[in-house]
Amino acid sequence: MTSHTKGNSTITTKDGVQIFYKDWGTGQPIVFSHGWPLSSDDWDTQMLYFLSKGYRVIAHDRRGHGRSTQTWDGNDMDHYADDLAALTEALDLRHAIHVGHSTGGGEVARYLGRHGSKRVAKAVLIGAVPPVMLKSESNPQGLPIEVFDGIRAGVAGNRAEFYRDITLPFYGYNRPNAKVSEGIRQHWWLQGMAGGIKAHHDCVKAFSETDFTEDLKKIDVPTLVMHGDDDQIVPIADSALLAIKLLKKGTLKVYPGLPHGMCTTHPDVINPDLLSFFKD
After folding, report:
1. Catalytic annotation present for 39
2. Which of 60, 65, 101, 260 is catalytic?
3. 20 to 30 Å CA-CA from 105: which of 69, 75, 117, 133?
């Protein structure tokens, strides 16, 4: 079920969840998948930029996030990927470019691994969580479970304070001589607080424990992996440097000194690099 008015709309998934999305412009579609615990608004700068370059830009609020249904269940990567597939089918997108940041990068990888690339031309993983974040015997480089338990405790305890504080490492604002934007911090907080606490709590498990190894191996379209080497949220050694080895058609671009939220802090660097990859 969907209405096709250009602008904002919703689709309803087969399990009854309303997924909010924006759909602007004409041309080759670019589909943006956001990070935890944000919403499609995190892509505003990219959407405006690529709209001006003649692309059709689409971004959705993940279930439980933003303006989509505040789900209490189904907050896992399979459902996220299936929701993305439902959106691309409802809009009948073809030759689309899928761009995922952080958790959204996992969503894109699982979407391609689970649904294939028949509607997809290219993919981009930015500061993305694949292959797997959690430390284990098979993934000794990963982050210990205590890190993610701490995030869960922050969400459950005082989400408002926790979301304000996490913006500092997210944007590298805790580094010496960082130029802090309070507006960017408040925008992150506003997006986070708009979502559902249960979905956000569940999503920590989804982004930290899901193993995307087999998904990455299945991706058969050109894939750009972009990562800041000062990413304090998704350390590059645990993610991009491993993911690139699993991709058939992967290209790795490392950004010295840039943080996890580099699309927001450095759009003047990231957007032209994205455009170059899209046109290649």
Report:
1. no
2. 260
3. 69
Contact (CB, 8 A) for 266 and 257: no
Instruction: Respond yes or no: is residue 215 known to be catalytic.
Output: no
pLDDT per residue as tens, the chain (280 positions): 444 456 789 999 999 999 999 999 999 999 999 999 999 999 999 999 999 999 999 999 999 999 999 999 999 999 999 999 999 999 999 999 999 999 999 999 999 999 999 999 999 999 999 999 999 999 998 999 999 999 999 999 999 999 999 999 999 999 999 999 999 999 999 999 999 999 999 999 999 999 999 999 999 999 999 999 999 999 999 999 999 999 999 999 999 999 999 999 999 999 999 999 999 8
260 flagged as catalytic: yes
Sequence-separated (6 or more) residues with CB below 8 Å from residue 193: 159, 160, 163
